[in-house]
Amino acid sequence: MQATVRSFDPGTGSGSVFFDDGTVAGFGPGAFARSGLRLLRPGQRVAVGRGPDGAIVGLTLATFPLPPGPDEPVSQPPEASPGGHARTG
């Protein structure tokens, strides 16, 4: 689900978003901490993860995958395939 940042307080790590239907929802420092982001700006598009109760449990930039929720394990990146080569140039 996507939303637009309405407000963000970098001191507390909490803020609020507008969903596309116009509703407003707040998020706490835990949801922001899981994002791995350093800052959000009003008007920025974000992807939002919500818990069973509808509370925002995670968010990140709209072009990034959502981080795991508070009760989900963090997945490790897949190992590089043997003989795989990185593209250069």
Characteristic terms for this protein:
about 90 residues, mainly beta, OB fold (Dihydrolipoamide Acetyltransferase, E2P), five-stranded antiparallel beta sheet, 1 helix, globular
What is the structure about, briefly put?
This protein is mostly beta strands and 89 residues long. 8% of the residues lie in helices and 34% in strands.
CATH top level of the domain at 2-61 is Mainly Beta
CATH topology of the domain at 2-61: OB fold (Dihydrolipoamide Acetyltransferase, E2P)
CATH superfamily of the domain at 2-61: Nucleic acid-binding proteins
Number of helices, where a helix is a run of at least 4 consecutive DSSP H or I residues: 1
What does this protein structure show overall?
This protein has 89 residues and is mainly beta. Helix content is 8%, strand content 34%. It has one helix at residues 29-35; strands at residues 2-9, 14-19, 24-27, 45-50, 56-61. Strands 3-2-1-4-5 form a five-stranded antiparallel sheet. The radius of gyration is 16 Å and the shape is globular.
